[in-house]
Amino acid sequence: MNDIALELDCRGMPCPRPVIELARNLASVAVGDLLAVVAEDPAARVDVPAWCRMRGQEWVREDTAADGVARYVVRRLA
Fold it and tell me: What is the set of domains in the chain, with CATH numbers?
């Protein structure tokens, strides 16, 4: 989908690196924009939505990147 403002390639990164990268890069997108984390780490499926709840950001969806790897989409709210 082309509504993603920034896609982070976290393939090969173990937990908790995908969430750390999400936190580090959130300010790179405007409030209201979408940020995606592409990660093979199975913990990211739980960690990204939990991080959104704790940080007041919107968990949007899980889908897949072009190569079939899981992609977790977050909307920056603040």
Answer: 4-75 (3.30.110.40)
